Amino acid sequence: MDNLNEKQKHMEERIKYVMARLSGKDAPDRIEKIMNPHFISCSYEEKSLTIAYDVVEWELNPQGAFHGGLTTTAFDNVFGLLTHFFADETYVTTVEISTHFHKAIQLGDRMVVSVKATHIGKTLAGYTGELRIANRDNLLAATASTTFMMLHGKKSELLDTQNQNNN
Predict the structure, then answer these.
(1) Hey, how many other C-beta atoms are within 10 angstroms of the C-beta on 130?
(2) Distance between CA atoms of 2 and 157, rounded to whole angstroms?
(3) Is the dihedral of CA 155, 44, 103, 144 positive or negative?
(4) How does pLDDT run across 104-147, given as a tens digit for each residue?
(5) Quick check: 19 and 42 in contact, CB under 8 A?
(6) In the sheet where 48-54 sits, what is the strand order?
(7) C-alpha closest to that of 111 among 79, 149, 82, 140
(8) How does pLDDT run across 8-44, given as a tens digit for each residue?
(9) Which residues pair with 10 in a beta bridge?
(10) Do 1 and 14 meet the contact criterion of CB atoms below 8 Å apart?
(11) What sign does the CA torsion over 116, 37, 122, 150 have?
């Protein structure tokens, strides 16, 4: 794949494929599915990905705001999707993640999580991200950074190309 447009198309297809495996109607009821992500965009050239989430009742903390742990989870899920694309079929795991909370997120808000790679090496990949609230003039609600590790020799089943062609 030499053409940037081909690489962009491939990236979008692969990310949507992984999203369907994690959160589609046939996916198991795990956090990725329960949070109900919505693909917004990705950029091969910028090494970035944007996913949206709508805040619902079960995600609220006792004070009635979106739970901070789920804010970190949203970032981790989007960072992970982008890492899976660049790692191809290699198993990946979060090494560390840091989240900074700027504004409370409320029931009914649409969170837009945008992440971008700062470094993609053979074993480690670094990212930064922003969470903005679309329905409140794109208010910056949180930022995050992370490091992921690609565990060479261990295969991820999320990008199983044999099953991808059959779905």
Answers:
(1) 18
(2) 26
(3) positive
(4) 999 999 999 999 999 999 999 999 999 999 999 999 999 999 99
(5) no
(6) 38-43, 48-54, 110-120, 124-133, 139-155, 90-101
(7) 140
(8) 999 999 999 999 999 988 889 999 999 999 999 999 9
(9) none
(10) no
(11) positive
Q: What is the CA radius of gyration of the chain?
A: 16
Write the single-letter amino acid at 8: Q
**101 phi-psi bin (left φ>0, alpha ψ -120 to 50, beta other):** beta
Q: Which residue has the tokens 């046939």?
A: 26
Check if the beta carbon of residue 42 is closer than 8 Å to that of residue 49. Answer: yes
Strands 110-120 and 38-43: unpaired
DSSP state at residue 44 = T
CB distance 5 to 145 below 8 Å: no
